[in-house]
Specification:
Distance between the termini: 80 Å
Largest sheet: none
Shape: globular
Low-confidence stretches: 1-10
Structural class: mainly alpha
Strand content: under 5%
Radius of gyration: 26 Å
Order of helices and strands: HHHHHHHH
Length: 184
Amino acid sequence: MLVGAVSAATSGPAEALADVEACYAAIRAGDTGSASIQRCVDVAANPQLDALTQAQVYSAMAWHYARNGSIDASRNALTSIGAQYQNDPVVQNNLGNMYLAEKQFSAALQAYEMALSGLGAGPARAAVQLNRSMALRALGRYEDAYLAYQSYLDLVRPEPQVRPVMPADNDVPPADPFRSTPRS
């Protein structure tokens, strides 16, 4: 269980990141005590942390709430940080997942599209495209869902292996499979 208060005045960047790791460890361990939750809120509010790290702490807390069946607490955490961190793809993707689970498909689609606007190519973009395809499908927009799913596949499929073509070397005679000794 996490105990103690975070002091932004005495805590430097290294200590702030250590606090984040302790918060994540408590979340993974299933520590849902009010003191631990308040500690994570205090950790996320530490001005020594960048906005992305703060948003990810809140997002991790929301994920933990949802995982343990506290949908209302998860929704409250995500909607409060969703407005504050509109440009954070992690928060917006998790907000979309919450809306998708609640069958609020239009809101989910909007959150996924906001998440995509903040992402480049890579695994995170692939995951959001997959989620977006599910929201589009649920809305009955099958062609758009198909295109979003194709975009997901394009991001996760390995590049095709192209074998280089070797130029013919006219100076070397073709191998004779029936000769045991090389030609001279």
